[in-house]
Design brief:
single chain, mainly alpha
């Protein structure tokens, strides 16, 4: 759980730091789009990191299965993580696809 959260946090910070670098060279609509990406990636990956901690209540139930409490079914958490992994890379995929298609014209 801690390793998963750390991985999500590192991904979030690396994407954010790269986007901040892009802010220094962008203007106009591109700058607004970069801000949109920064905000959306932080929301998406932040909520994904939060799921790592709240998937079981109390949190100790993750390690002690006989403890009283509730855990989300593992399939739900896997689907949630897969969905957000795809969502976090979608804006980058769209940007690179747009550049490829517009350069061919």
């Amino acid at each position: 759980m801690c390793a998963g959260f750390g991985s999500i946090l590192a991904t979030c910070w690396s994407k954010t730091s790269f986007a901040i670098s892009l802010l220094r060279i962008s203007t106009g609509k591109v700058r607004h789009f970069v801000w949109f990406i920064i905000i959306s990636v932080n929301i998406v990956l932040g909520s994904n990191g939060l799921v790592q901690w709240i998937q079981c209540w109390p949190v100790q139930k993750r390690w002690y299965y006989d403890m009283d409490g509730y855990c989300f079914p593992s399939k739900i958490v896997q689907n949630y993580n897969t969905f957000f992994a795809g969502t976090s890379c979608d804006p980058e995929g769209r940007v690179s696809t747009q550049r490829l298609t517009s350069s061919r014209r």
